[in-house]
């Protein structure tokens, strides 16, 4: 792995995971629907963002994001090498991992990326054309899309499955798209506390922007699947089995020249920043930039991304709910 050190740590098996509280179908049975309403509102906000400015930001930053998150695409490529077959890449974005997997599988590759954002899918198709890849792309909500059943032997995702309002149902939908015994591999973020780089901007800006949204682990969004016990339970509910979850730390880098554009576009600050009155906006940028200083090493910004690699198998006899 060229630009990053991947440190595989502990493998958490199903039996050792404790089941935590989660905002899914079970929450519906609890008296009062506040958690359910909040989760669905958050999921709708995420979908709206990906269909709008979130996708624009991602496409504009595609060059350095490709390099920054390359270690995690490599993990999906490894799964494809171990389990070649028909591949579905969920929340494929601009198609970096879909195209990488298709490249690994060679001339016979049958790889499809699905994404809720038309902009992302457009950029993914452009990428596939540019790189002469056979990868194909579908613009749809992976949680509810009527995929052909049993059409995939491997379902993968790099940071594309944390946004669902009802994750168990969404994983059930992906289970139906998968053939019996098909493999699942995805990468998601561990919690906010373990990813301080990712929350630097909002922590620094909060005193200056009291209206800044406060996010927490488990909400649909970047840290939506931070709790491995909950993730395992959601997968089991969705008809997946043999769940294995292990932490992976990767050192990620981006050019120092892109740092301002990075924190101005992404996270919770990105959408809020353009609407701030000018004197405040400039102060926020200055304050946030200073907060990132510990991560700046010459012309490079460097941080550790703390993630989970999740593996599972489509249960032969449980078609997902
Ligand atoms: C953090 S980006 C990751 C993109 C890509 N996998 C990558 O690593 O470059 C998350 C992607 O998931 C997509 N997404 C979010 N919710 C989705 C859903 N319900 N169905 C399909 N795609 C979704 C977004 O549009 C976005 O492209």
What does this entry look like structurally?
This is Class I SAM-dependent methyltransferase. Residues 87-177 form the Methyltransferase domain. Residues 23-42 are annotated as: Disordered. There is one protein chain. By secondary structure, the protein is α/β, with parallel strands linked by helices. The chain has a single domain, classed as Rossmann fold. The protein contains 13 helices and 10 strands. Strands 1, 2, 3, 4, 5, 6, 7, 8, 9 and 10 form a 10-stranded mixed beta sheet that branches. Strand 6, helix 8 (167-177) and strand 7 form a beta-alpha-beta unit. It starts with 5 loop residues before the first strand and ends in a 7-residue tail after the last strand. 45% of the residues are buried. Mean pLDDT is 88; it is low at 1-32.
Counting DSSP H or I runs of 4 or more residues, the number of helices is 13
Given helix and strand content, the structural type is alpha/beta
CATH H-level name... which superfamily? Vaccinia Virus protein VP39
Strand elements, count: 10
Task: Name the descriptors.
321 residues, alpha/beta, Rossmann fold, 10-stranded mixed sheet, 13 helices, disordered N terminus, binds S-adenosylmethionine
Break the fold down into its secondary structure elements and pairings.
Elements: E1 6-8, E2 12-13, H1 25-28, H2 34-51, H3 53-60, H4 62-68, H5 70-82, E3 86-90, H6 96-105, E4 110-115, H7 118-130, E5 136-139, E6 152-158, H8 167-177, E7 178-189, H9 196-205, H10 228-237, E8 240-255, H11 259-265, H12 269-272, H13 278-291, E9 296-297, E10 300-314
Parallel strand pairs: 3-4, 3-6, 4-5, 6-7
Antiparallel strand pairs: 1-8, 2-8, 7-10, 8-10, 9-10
Helix pairs in contact: 5-6, 8-10, 9-13
This protein binds S-adenosylmethionine (SAM).
GO molecular function, one term: methyltransferase activity
InterPro entries: Methyltransf_25 (IPR041698), SAM-dependent_MTases_sf (IPR029063)
Domain Methyltransferase: 87-177
